[in-house]
Amino acid sequence: MIEFISKNNKKNLVIFVHGFTGGKDTWKNLTHGFFFDQLAELPLVAENFDVACFEYFTKLTNLFPAANSYIAKIKSILKMSSDKAEKNIGISEISELFRSYIRFQLAGYENIVVIAHSMGGLVAKSAILKDIEQGYNNKISLFISLAVPHLGADLGTYGKLLSNNQQINDLAPLSEFCPRLNNKWVKQSNRPPIKYFYGTYDDVVTKQSAIGTDDIEQDIITCNDDHLTICKPAGASCIAMMAVHHFLSDFINGTSDNNLDIIKLEDDSQFDDEFFVLKLLLADVHNSTIKHSKEHFLNAEYARKLFSSSSDQKKLGQLYGRIRTLYQDSYDKFANNGHGNSGELVAEIHQKIISEDAGYLKTALPLIHGLHKKGMLHQLANDLNDDVWWSEERSEEALRKIKAGLDETTQK
């Protein structure tokens, strides 16, 4: 179920997901109170987020779940009770329950930030992947992973000797569930950003398991905690609390207007000697389209400088590849049809980029939107080694002649 800690009709939600055998007390520091209460009191969070907890049934003592469930059902029938006989279900099934709550009870939120501890992170991860794979709108925009056993937990292996509890089986490093989930995660380019927290004194989930095996540079936060204290921060000066506050601040700054500052051209002659402009001139594209393309290029250059980390550059590289594919599909149609003009081709691919902004071209970099993606197309065209042109004339010599003509005009 979903229990709200604060609900003030904000467009963003922070939701806490506990782990194996957990519940609300998972988040309780005996001196400083619950993690979610501490977080909700921060001005940044109070002004921008509602806060809630997702809770589900999970118990260690259910050593014989099938028998216990059967007995409970018999008792409920004899008592004519309406209480359901709860039992431990697998992580995948819990994730389906989580998805249902997000789809219906949390439908009004634009963005959801998940803070998950231990097995709760696998629940969230599974839910995210299912949404992406099935083409649903995944509202989880940031995933904060607190000592989550992405590669399994050793205690799960020992637990298999004691119990046929499905959750323990899923957590075991040698089970199929964790490796399969992790392999799907690293192959999914549309996954949300994830922040990996691990405890230096954690004897349950190793550091290697807690930080996963992403194919891009990971953001890893080391906490002076064990497996249980990492989700029970001791006030505002605790590393986990400071880091979560920092990431929420970055998130709000990045999504408050969902835009980078838009930069204008200094004058209409800016970029006249760049190859992407010369290619447009060679194809006899209208001057107004060239000016807009310059503005797009300028803003894409700004974004590329801003996202300079190796992790961000990897995400940008994937985006460039998809934009190139959209261009190639449009150009192939243009070349095969044998009619139309280059201006129409440029307009068509610009329109395709806008229409695919939230779909095929969706990126985990929240500030990148359609205008920048249009500019990324012209960044590709600015490289003579990249096969982005607007006419069948693809001569570098022709470009240099156009440039020479521009230079002569400028000198006059």
Automatic annotation (TrEMBL):
Residues 267-393 form the ABC-three component systems C-terminal domain. Keywords: Endoplasmic reticulum, Hydrolase, Membrane. It is found in: Endoplasmic reticulum; Membrane. It comes from the Bacteria. Residues 8-154 form the DUF676 domain. The keyword Hydrolase applies. Its main location: endoplasmic reticulum. Gene3D superfamilies: alpha/beta hydrolase. InterPro entries: AB_hydrolase_fold, ABC-3C_CTD8, DUF676_lipase-like, SERAC1. GO terms for molecular function: hydrolase activity. It holds the Pfam family DUF676. This is Alpha/beta hydrolase. It comes from Janthinobacterium fluminis.
